[in-house]
Amino acid sequence: MEQITLKRLAELSGLSIRTVSRVLKDQAHVHPEKRELILKLAREHNYIPNMAARNLRLNRSNFVGILCTDISHEIFMQKLLDLEIRLEACGYYPVVGRFTGKSAGLEKVLTQWSGIAEFVVVTMFVGTRIHPSIQEQFRRFPLTPIYVDQDRVLEDGHTLNINRATGIRDAISTLIDEGKKKILRCGNLESREKGLQEAFEKTPPERRPELIRLTGTGTFENGRSLAGKILEFGADAVFFDTDRMALGFLNYAAEHGVKVPERIAVIGFDDEAGGKLVYPSLSTVAHPVEELNKAILSIIQEKPEKPVHQVFPTRFIRRMSS
Whole-angstrom distance between the N-terminal and C-terminal Cα of the chain? Predict the structure, then answer.
């Protein structure tokens, strides 16, 4: 499709190039009706800013878009930092954009990235499902999405997913093999349940320990506040949905003289930095950060014609708390 120019947008709207330019730069002092007309024409014709259009003609694609919903959690920051380092080491320039759930905001981001970037890494937390409208938006722009950690295969792009069950299954199986009689799972994340069930299902009925479930919110404070109740259940092992909860429990245990792992073994999920620094150090299930980001870089460098669909396992890391 031939790229429409600023001059052509002005001709179609019957307005001056200066007015059109002010609207596209989101500047003030333009009548609302004129602004709406220009934005409508820009959307209909998939207008790409001049700099992006020049880069598109010159086939420059050293920029890589990274679209995310939230970067406040430590594990996401780990993934993002590792990806940025790998991209920059290979001569690419990562550009991060935040998706707030509004279609207009996404359209603005993709318009700005078109021609500047060829690939966009789309990473949302599991549970924040990619809406069909997002996929439809990508079809309108010369951008190739790399969907990351969506727990399903998405068409019209590459899909790299994480199997959370593998590491959890190995962690729980280790507890069972060591003779734990009462295992408590604390949390509320659906993505943690499969690995737990797999570990129990592969264990003969006569060897299966009692399984207790306790709902939690995933925070440090919640893990600390639930510690007393967890101990009242008499569990000899506890798996927390997040490291943050596990660290909260360890904080309580240290303050109240509860011996870990002698009295109760503790395992978390995410492999956050704090788990390596506390005493006892926290056993955890780790995300495949390196493997995932190496696969992203491989797609960007090799530009495969067919969509790549891969699944990467999590792994159990045993430390002092279990």
Answer: 60
